[in-house]
Amino acid sequence: MDDDQTGRFLGSVWEPCGNRACDGGLAHHCLRDAPLWTVYAAAGVRRSEALGMKWSLVRWDEGAIELGWVVVEEGNTYRLRKLTKDGDDNAVIYVDQSVMSVLKRQRERQDAERKRLGSAWVDHDLVFARDGFKLYRGEAGGPQDPEKVSARWRTLRSRLKLPEEFRIHDWRHSKVTNDLEAGENPVEVSANVRHHSPGYTMSRYGHSRKDGARKLAASGAGRLGLSSLV
Questions:
Q1: 218 CB contacts (<8 Å, ≥6 apart)?
Q2: What are the mean pLDDT values of the chain's consecutive 10-residue runs (230 residues total)?
Q3: Looking at the structure, do residues 16 and 74 belong to the same domain, yes or no?
Q4: DSSP H helical segments within the chain, as ranges?
Q5: Same domain, yes or no, for 31 and 110?
């Protein structure tokens, strides 16, 4: 998705349902995943990384988040473990203060959920912890089942009539592609998605910039007046 499409998507997921029980998403379930989808779209993190985010690793004043944990699938189950992908240990990403505001909204909702559930909430310091919606077994406050998150994404994707092949992970691809096509520094783009080098980022995503490169070439030729020479 390009930036305009992403903006329209985020506008859609933050619209309260308007039902009588709706309180703008603080306790009602209609906006329960809006902060999560926003973080995927705006930060370019992997599914496992967002689900493993911890409050104690959010640097509010710096606009930074340490990615020290992930929630991974193992056979028919899943677990929270330390981040080890690509040798990273507590990788740091930087986000805009608007994303920090989204996290503050998430913390408000989580505090309300913790108060509502009482002893049924077992705190694991997780930003996107399992809440009490349809909590039949297990515990609130612990890690979410990654496959159930993906299932909710597929439901939302269908409701918003997004392409069926668009996965949660594709938000990461969109983020990198849009940043590069906007002319952002490849070094910073690469670092913020934890690629091992800017060269890898450019080789992986450079093909998507063909149209932009052609426009650049045409613009340069026009400024030089080459069309009048042939």
A1: none
A2: 87 84 72 92 92 97 93 92 68 90 94 90 95 76 94 92 91 85 80 75 66 67 68
A3: yes
A4: 3-13, 34-43, 47-51, 97-117, 146-159, 170-181, 186-192, 198-205, 210-224
A5: yes
19: exposed, middle or buried (Cβ count in 10 Å: 0-12, 13-18, 19+): exposed
DSSP letter for each residue of 81-145: EE--GGG-SSEEEE--HHHHHHHHHHHHHHHHHHHHHGGGB----BTT---STT--SS-BTS---
Residues 35, 137, single domain; the answer is: yes
Residue 67 and residue 45 in contact, taking contact as beta carbons nearer than 8 Å = yes
Q: Which two tokens stand for residue 181?
A: 């096509």
| Burial of 55 from C-beta contacts in 10 A (0-12 / 13-18 / 19+) | middle
Residue 210's identity, in one-letter code, is K
Amino acid at 141: G
Q: Within a domain: residue 228?
A: no
Please choose, from the candidates 80, 101, 83, the residue with its C-alpha nearest in 3D space to the C-alpha of residue 92: 83
Residue 206 falls within a domain, yes or no?
Answer: yes
Enclosing domain of residue 143: 3-172
Q: How many of the other CB atoms lie within 10 Å of CB of 88?
A: 14
Could you tell me which of 79, 68, 217 has the C-alpha nearest to residue 146? 79
pLDDT digit string, tens, across residues 194-226:
777 777 777 777 655 566 666 667 777 776 677
- CATH number for the domain harbouring residue 21: 1.10.443.10
